[in-house]
Amino acid sequence: MKRFILLFLILALLISGCSNGGKNEVEPSKNNVSQAEDMAKDNSGEKEEVRTYASKTTGISDSLPGDRLFAVIIENTPAARPQSGLIDADIVYEVLAEGGITRFLALFNNTYPEVVGPVRSARPYFVDIAKGWGAEFVHVGGSTQAYIDIQKLKLGDFDAMHMDKPFFKDKSRKDPHATYISLKALKEIKSVSNGYNYQFKFNDKGNSREVSSIDIPYNKDFDIKYIYDEEDGHYMRYIGDKAHTDRESGKQLYADNMIIEFHRHRVLDNEGRLEITMAGSGDAVIISGGREIKCLWERTGETSPVKYYDENGEEVLLNPGKTWINIVPTGLDIKID
Length: 337
What we know:
The protein is of the alpha+beta class and about 325 residues long.
């Protein structure tokens, strides 16, 4: 079959060369034959080897990572779902905000989507996390303390309250759920980072699949589940019993590594704003390579890089892939099966 396609393509090239009354008869060049062979190979069903690249955020990537690290605040109320761009994030932090809702800080380095959002306002603990990575912080406004911390920490940021493009409004959604950003366009703007600080280290131990599901019940409206899918080879994400999907592609969000960090939470005011202690150490559970690893998280300061240590005091390395980090109140009853 491959030989038939090759002969057919070469014959077509010969006929096209004789079309002008035979005045400009052209013999197939080596380049044309080579092109025909390539086309025949493609049509024969042979698959080309997929190239991978080293990545500082996921270990490996099927696309060439960029040279910018963005940390974007993304909303997670029901009115914000399905979100755009979360499926392309390398690392996602999920943390409680006021009112019992969760909010995301999504880090992008491997790819820069054209549509990300809805983008929402900053809180101090998101500022701390972004500063720890040295990431360029993307948000729409913020609490008074968040703004104070951005200035104090000299965190480079892009704020939709003070700039237009590459932020834009989605007319199909109502404020405050309508602000989005193009990271593809943002990367053309000069960097505001003082230096990126990539925190994760990766291994190549392979997978065991000892863990099939993880349940993180922030509350009845934000009961987060990850369930391993044998066919896809990822832990698929759910909110309650509903698949959490990407608005642009319709595909379900997933993780390869899940980290649960236990932190002290304190309500600050009548609005329900929270203080979350980011410095020090606390219990953590890591699911990586399908294995459950009980460990400690440690940050020497509020904005310091995090390290994870297992029960033997060894630093934990992650398997390559996307990582979701759930920061939860101390004592929350999570379930791992």
